[in-house]
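Below is one such protein, fold included:
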Amino acid sequence: MSLQKIILQNFRSYKKTEFTFEETTLVVGPNTSGKSNLVEAIYLLSTGKSFRTDKDTQMLKFTEEVGRVKGAVNDDELEVLITNGEVNGGSQYKKFLVNGVSKRRVDFAGRLLAVLFSPQDLEIIIESPSLRRNFLDEVLEQTDRNYRVATTSYAKALRQRNALLEMVQETGRRNEKQFEYWDNLVIENGNIITAKREELINFLNSSAKDIFDCVVEYDKSLISKERLLQYEREEVAAGVTLVGPHRDDFAVLMFNPSAGSGQAQAAHDVKFYGSRGQQRLAILQLKMLQLLFIEQSLGERPLLLLDDIFSELDEGHIQLILQEIGKQQTIITTTHEEFIPKKLLKSMKVINLQR
């Protein structure tokens, strides 16, 4: 799988710009020159979503009404169209096209496989559970259409069920027929999500780890008729659904090297007990396993996006990542070309950006 070209129109800082890529491409430029905007556009073509915002209109160039990202991937032309609503009767929308044919996101995502690694990924380890759930979704939505369908259906059903809970909270009346319909949907799709996530966690734990020895502990929130009934009173008081995969979390546990070898050792959550360096190694290990999972699931090595990693990582960690170059198409952004070893630089296409 290879991204040959991308065209940006009214996307973030770009008015209309075209980039072409080779097996390894280095994008060099000062801060605010648009490096991360370019990476975001590539990620959008891959997943149908931004990794920086939940609001699609924030990806539009300031004051513009319509933006496009178009990419050539092997023999396909992928395109995402974004509007702010001014040209669509007041409603914002995002449209996905493959070779000019409109597609739903569930049928668009996964045509350009990509793994993104940036300094901000450290937040997956140290910040809120939503970021760890996003990591699981990022991996599984690229590899499994059924998972994409399930997450979309689950999110819709969850919104409707929460609206019913708010209504009960306000009126004191509960329509069991309405709840039964949405309960069945969240249970059916929630169980698909949980099973797929469990498969991924098992893969992470069973795979060899040559960067950081760890185990991933899945804190799943199971959803069933019994659990919904168990939390019925608390849900009405809160006005939201309290069980289900939208409440999932996971922890990355590291071992005490002085206690011996193997998983029988005492394990500690790297979020609370790991040093900054250990946390970086943990997320780097997860990203390398993400590459491997996608490759083994689909038989293709995904595009690797390395966004400004040299500004945050130390020399040892950088060398671990540079070892991955050449195993797949790789696009790297950096503020200084000197960060790249001269031997590697000779085999790269270099794109220079200016403010």
Summary: The chain has two domains: 1-113+300-355, 126-283+291-298.
